[in-house]
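Quick one:
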Amino acid sequence: MNTGYLSKYINRYKKQFSIGLTFLILETMGDLIQPTIMSRIIDNGVRQGDMNYVLKLGGLMLLVTALGAACAVVRNIVSSKVSQSFGADLREDLYIKIQGFSFDNIDEFQDASLITRLTNDVNQIQNFSHGMMRVFVKAPVLGLGAIVMAFLLNPKMSLILLGVVPVVGIVIAINLKISYPIFTRIQKALDKVNGVMREYLAGIRVVKAFNRFNYERERFRTVNRDLKDITLKGMRIVAVFNPLVALAVNIGIVLVLWIGGLRVNVGNMEVGKIMAFINYMTQVLFGLMIMTRVLNMLIRAKASAERIGEVFEAENSILPMDNPISINNGKGRLEFENVYFKYHSSGKYVLEDIDFSANPGETVAIIGSTGSGKSTLINLIPRFYDVIKGKIKIDDIDVRDISLDELREKIAIVPQKALLFTGSIKDNIKWGNEKATDEEVEKVAKIAQAHDFVKSFNEGYDIYLGQGGVNLSGGQKQRISIARALIKKPAILILDDSTSAVDLITERNIRKGLKEYLKDTTTILIAQRITSVMDADKILVMDKGKIVGMGAHEELMKACEVYQDIYHSQIGKGALDLDA
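Output:
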């Protein structure tokens, strides 16, 4: 069971947990004493008409009740603090673990499942820990204590209790065995609901554009119905077993009343002890009912703990070096040496024998059909994935020998899908360098051809962007993303089809600004439009994961058939030839 990680938090909070349990036990002891005090009031005070005795023990009952209430207040304060702190620590550690994951790890778990584990699964364990210090520990203590007190009160009558408890234990054991796999399936069903919701919200514009509401509604209805069905199955089990526990205990209470009544009639037992015995039976019933609820929650918490444990136990496929080599003074020369790569979920290489170099100040463009491996290739440079065979070097040092922080500090990426964060435009640009001045922000925005449209807003660079930059167009988001990369002043700049949403004139101005601003930067440019790559110092033509052509535009027009096909298909269809 993948729950060993919990010992870290148990050790961290065991003192506070022990304090909470101490006050819980004191509160429970007060509950256990009261039926005995009450029996003495009835048998020794009320029966004999001794009001002083009644008042004396009545005052004692009030004192015990007050002390129990005080213990309950302290216990509630401690339990709330410990459970919330534990939940926050667990959630943060899990988030940090996920942050360190490679793309392979994220692909393995899936985004929606990781979100469920960070939220619902952590909440299940947090709620269980909270309940442990409130009623979960109190239930067995109260139940066992009631049995002990009943035995001290009347050993023969307590045999009824000893007969009821094993029956209830068998019922609970069967419940545990049946329920566990069902509650595990509930969490997986919740993963699917989160996955559909996440995909819908991410693609809501496409859904609206194609009017696919019925399709999406049916998708959600299917996973939602699956979640409902499996949850109902779990609840039906709870609905069957809880009454069985109550039935067994209530039969015990009926036996106590029947046998106790007979003994009172013959003068072998006092009425007060019968009432105390019934109270203890009720406490046993309460304890067993809570224990059943505890075990149901334990099953869910156990399933959640194992799912979280899977994340903690997952080995990051991107392993840092113990003694990394520094590239602080490096120039940014990039070299691929016979690189092969395949995804873990695929047995086929998606990149084969990739071999090329890019020097500082040089622009290397990559072009090819969709699925040819262009984006996969650039994902290997910052080690989002690791090569299977071959080497990728920066300044003659294998990227696997460089610390991840230092490696990624040298690289700036403008992704194919521009992603902005909630906050101002200035905040988004300063993601590349949080210490940048306003002047630097404006400078890179001008190079990225973003300054003019930003200044058209009343708030300028302080305009607030919604999640994902929803109040900007695709081209505007791409230009902000380019500015964010430029302000980092990287040694290597990767542009993954990052001007696909801007017009050709704006793209030409951006390329001109990049060439002037990043004279010593190694630039890797991926593009679909051939006009975007024609001016590059070197062009790589990719097809089915291999480099099928390499050279300048003129060379490839003479020697590379794939490049010629791309050129003629685009230029021949009326695209602007910027060389004309």
